[in-house]
Specification:
alpha+beta, three-stranded antiparallel β-sheet, 6 helices, globular
Length: about 230
Amino acid sequence: MSAKRKKNDKGPSWLEVGLGAVLSIILGTVLGAAFLIFKPVSKVTAIPKDAPSGAIYYIEGKEDFSRDSASEDIKKSFLAGETVTVSEGMLNGFLGDLAKPSTPASSDPAKPSPPPPPKPFDTSALNARMHDGKITFADTVTVNVLSVSMSVIVQETGTFSKHGSTFAFDPDEFYVGGCPMQRLLFLRDYLQNKLLFNQPVPADIAAAWSKLTDVQVESAGLMLKGPQS
């Protein structure tokens, strides 16, 4: 009996102490990340000159709803393998079309289909802004957890480079709210596919993109160099 009491008086083992420390670090990291993610991001038209250090801002790219013949001509030239330059407004118009939901037909015409249940992450149309030789893709994502909805601005800035046989987006900066994610490679890839690049691309667009020989962000827009140039 005395031996058992003596063993209990020694306190926690090194394994228990180590496990407690690891759990404390993980909990602190999760709470810190949650604080940064839901930290408000200011939507502005230009970065303030007196912006405080560490402040995160969101500048929305221009949109073009005209859908004039020039947009259709550029699309036809792109699909034909020619070099085209897509302006910021045209690109956002295309991204807006991708995000339009397809409404399933109701079996009873007099009774409309019920709205779909909320997803854990509700996304909207992706927005693009070109600046300083780079492009920023952004979206306002609604996070639905335990009947509580919160909006978070997700934005990623970078350029395009060749990955294997096709061009892909290479982010230099990636923020979910105010939390930087660019160094967390595996989590970054998952989040950008889940929160930003989650819309299926039409087969003809994907096929033409796979044949590009160069992609550059220029002052006039996104330059897509086709194989027929």
